[in-house]
Amino acid sequence: MDDTHQSDKNQKMVLKSIAKWLVIFALIAFVCYKNQDLMQEALEEIQITPVWKLVVCLLLGNLYFIAEGCIISEMTNTCDHRLSVWQGITCAYLCTFFRIATLGSGTGVAQLYYYNLHGIRVSTATGMSLAQYTFQKITIGIFGVVSFLLLILSGHSGIRKYAWYMFAGAVVISLICLFLFILTVSKKFSDLIMKLARKLVKPKSRLYPLLDKAQISIDYLQEQGRIVWKDKRLFLTVVGLDFFKFACWYAIPGIFFAGSYSVTIATCLGLTAVCNMVGCVMLAPSGVGTLDFVFALFFACVIPDGDAVAAGLVIYRLFTWIVPFVIGLVPALAVRKKDEK
Of 166-170, 235-239, 273-277, 336-340, which range is least confident? Predict the structure, then answer.
């Protein structure tokens, strides 16, 4: 009975993923059709890009996953079965494969499965996964807010044009970060949230059973969160690596535009951080579409050539999405083969 239920659940997840991707492909096809000239010119822009820039972008894109692997290895150091750095990197690529394949919904499942495969208990794995996600969101928020403030202080007239949109994103992400932080460290706060949720959701509602699961997840999060907060070395390592990995990704547009336009790598890095911050608070599967829209909008403020902006977006997606997805296919197939045995 449980196997049948799990099989039905997996089929529904696959169908949902297929439906999402059909919608995404339809939108991409429509946009490409409406902007054929722009896409053609963007591809021509990429073709004349120096090889060294593409190599550096490739390196930066993959340094993210090396840092992520180190984070996983460090966090599993608190349990009985520590993953090596190599296993952490493998897990990072595996998770990004399922994140892109399922547009976000399969990331946690893939991570839990890999942890369980290496002897880490489900409760511990769930707590570590949630704690890692929380620290990641807080890092995106802090990185984006600080970058927004520095960009405004720089006095760039183009950036000031969308200052209010950036400010709105900064406020929302700050509130989200504050909520996640308090939820991680305060048992009283989480109990209050769950109490309010149980009052708002009717006992006969389909959502009511999910509250029990949410309570268990919060307990796991707080348990692992306390471990990280108390261990100063672990905390500083995780936070430092989180900032480093995002800095690698955020620097990619700066490397691509370097030397071609009167814009510094630091400005591009900060602007990409703001784009991700704003894209993070806009509801879309795995940030598809929202980040691209915000990227095109904000970078047009500092890069006068629309073709170059489109090319920069393609390069950013290539090295943060496509290449990691292809690499992630290798551990995904290896895990499936191992599972079949």
Answer: 336-340
Six-digit token pair at 15?
């169908």
User: Environment class of residue 302 by beta-carbon count within 10 Å: exposed (0-12), middle (13-18) or buried (19+)?
Assistant: buried
The tens digit of pLDDT for each residue in 267-324 reads 899 999 998 888 776 655 555 567 888 888 888 888 888 888 888 888 898 899 888 9
Residue 243 in contact with residue 63, Cβ under 8 Å?
no
Q: How far apart are CA 186 and CA 104, in angstroms?
A: 27
Which sequence spans correspond to the domains of the chain? 1-34, 51-340
- Residue among 266, 264, 285, 279 at smallest CA distance from 313: 279
Amino acid at 51: V
Compute the distance between CA of residue 25 and CA of residue 300 in angstroms, rounded to an integer. 25
CA–CA gap between residue 136 and residue 42 (Å, rounded):
32
Give Cβ neighbours of residue 134 (< 8 Å, ≥ 6 apart): 180, 181, 183, 184, 221, 225
CA angle at 184 for the pair 10 and 121, rounded to the nearest 5°: 45
User: Long-range contact list for 6-14, CB < 8 A, 24+ apart?
Assistant: 13/102, 13/105, 13/106
**pTM for the whole thing?**
0.83
Q: Name, in order, each residue with C-beta under 8 angstroms of 88's C-beta and a sequence gap of 6 or more.
A: 68, 69, 70, 71, 72, 73, 76
Q: CB-based contacts of 276: which residues, under 8 Å, 6+ apart?
A: 140, 143, 144, 246, 250, 287, 291
Note the pLDDT of residue 246.
96
